[in-house]
Amino acid sequence: MEDEVSRLAKVIEQAAALNPELMRQVTRRLARRFVEQRASAKYRGVEFRLTFEEWRDWWLSTGHVDERGRHRGEWVMGRRGDSGAYEIGNLKCMRAEDNVTEQNHLRAGEYVL
After folding, report:
1. Torsion from C-alpha of 69, 74, 76, 80, nearest 10 degrees
2. Rounded distance, CA 33 to CA 56, Å?
3. Percent of the chain with pLDDT over 90
4. Residue 96 pLDDT exceeds 80
5. Helix, strand or coil for residue 108?
6. What is the DSSP string of 63-94?
7. Is residue 65 part of a domain?
8. pLDDT of 16-73, one tens digit each?
9. Quick one: pLDDT band at residue 1, thresholds 50, 70, 90?
10. Residue at 74 is within a domain
11. Neighbour-count burial of 20, counting CB atoms closer than 10 A to its CB (0-12 exposed, 13-18 middle, 19+ buried)
12. What is the extent of the structural domain holding 56?
């Protein structure tokens, strides 16, 4: 993961140099999404231990940053076993419907792989 994050940081730096205005627009859009997700976690009583840069780089590394959302067919930042904080090492990228299914199994006391 570290090598991939390092590679992404270089790509982001190069893109910013090529088109600074576009990079500002993308960063503002992602920053809004970051604030929304952090606020949602706080509302649900889930600790959120990611910086903007960690959050951004994680989403970029998934390849699903433009497909993220809460609806069927969209991708979410899930937590392993749907427990613990949103933090590096406890995250998994999954479809929204799979996340709901996992939550339902866990609430019912069923084991989920």
Report:
1. 160
2. 10
3. 55
4. yes
5. coil
6. T-GGGBSSSTT-EEEEEGGG-S-B-TTSEEEE
7. yes
8. 667 777 778 888 889 999 999 999 999 999 999 999 999 998 998 898 988 999 999 9
9. low
10. yes
11. exposed
12. 2-107
The verdict on residue 113 lying in a domain is no
Q: Using CA atoms in the order 31, 15, 55, 57, what is the torsion angle rounded to 10 degrees?
A: 170
- What lies within 8 Å, CB to CB, of 33 at 6+ separation is 68
Does residue 112 sit within a domain? no
φ/ψ bin of 46: left (φ > 0), alpha (ψ from -120 to 50), beta (otherwise): beta
pLDDT of residue 23: 77
Give, rounded to a whole angstrom, the gap between the first and last alpha carbons of the chain.
22
Task: List residues bridging with 92 in a β-sheet.
Answer: 78
Place of tokens 């699903």: 64
Domain count across the chain = 1
Q: What torsion do the CA atoms of 75, 81, 87, 92 make, to the nearest 10 degrees?
A: -30
